[in-house]
């Protein structure tokens, strides 16, 4: 018995891995954020479910750990991958206050991978993932990370680009990036990856700040190598560039 922290993928359903399905089948109780538990609607109807709202992450983890300490097999579900801006680390932290329990992390397809596949192949070279949410990280730190990543010529994947409480964060991030990168840098953004209403678009860095983004949007900023090929955002790995195109 213990807690299995499960990544549901960007939209559950078709993006749910075999390991995740098996772990959900084996659990007694499913715990998670209301929207993530809802992704499993119609699946595992025999399982008990408990959900909490936004900003109650610690409560969810404590609930899961407490139930596991009483001998239950608990599945704590997260969108995407639980180790990428998910609950995996918090479960380990919270568990320090309880008798030892087994904790297992089941990976899922994170939005960076799911979104990149929709846009083409933007992450084939080195890349960095940065969240624009300053709820837990000061904006000054986020700005430094954006600046240094752009200066180092990483492709950037931006999570949490905007919300009701921070509607201008993507615009602010673009202003930071434009100090280091040309306005014509190829970019892309995706919404509702793996869910109803899924969409993917390309644009330039100069245009990106005006994109209507929200918490369901994942943004990609190309490096100096990134280009549009037949409308797809592609960062070459370097094979053709190394061997030449005369073969």
Description:
- By secondary structure, the protein is an alpha/beta fold.
- It has two domains: 2-106, Cobalt-precorrin-4 Transmethylase, domain 1 (3-Layer(aba) Sandwich); 111-234, Methyltransferase, Cobalt-precorrin-4 Transmethylase, Domain 2 (2-Layer Sandwich), CATH 3.30.950.10.
- Helix content is 30%, strand content 25%.
- The chain has helices at 18-26, 34-38, 57-69, 88-95, 111-119, 139-151, 169-177, 205-208, 239-243, and strands at residues 2-7, 29-33, 48-52, 73-78, 102-106, 120-121, 127-131, 155-159, 186-191, 199-204, 217-221, 227-229, 232-234.
- The chain has a five-stranded parallel beta sheet, with helices on both faces. Strands 7-8-11-9-10 form a five-stranded mixed beta sheet, with helices on both faces. It has a three-stranded mixed beta sheet with strand order 6-13-12.
- Helix 3 (57-69) crosses helix 4.
- It is elongated and about 60 Å long.
- The N and C termini lie far apart (58 Å).
- The mean pLDDT is 94.
List the helices and strands and how they pair.
Layout: E1 2-7, H1 18-26, E2 29-33, H2 34-38, E3 48-52, H3 57-69, E4 73-78, H4 88-95, E5 102-106, H5 111-119, E6 120-121, E7 127-131, H6 139-151, E8 155-159, H7 169-177, E9 186-191, E10 199-204, H8 205-208, E11 217-221, E12 227-229, E13 232-234, H9 239-243
Parallel strand pairs: 1-4, 1-5, 2-3, 2-4, 6-13, 7-8
Antiparallel strand pairs: 8-11, 9-10, 9-11, 12-13
Helix pairs in contact: 3-4
Quantity of strands, as a count: 13
Spatial arrangement of strands, main beta sheet: 3-2-4-1-5
| CATH architectural grouping of the largest domain | 2-Layer Sandwich
Going by CATH, the homologous superfamily of the largest domain would be Tetrapyrrole methylase, C-terminal domain
Q: Could you tell me the strand content as a percent range? A: 25-35%
- According to CATH, what is the topology of the largest domain? Methyltransferase, Cobalt-precorrin-4 Transmethylase, Domain 2
Structural class: alpha/beta
- Morphology call: elongated
Series of secondary-structure elements, N-terminal to C-terminal: EHEHEHEHEHEEHEHEEHEEEH
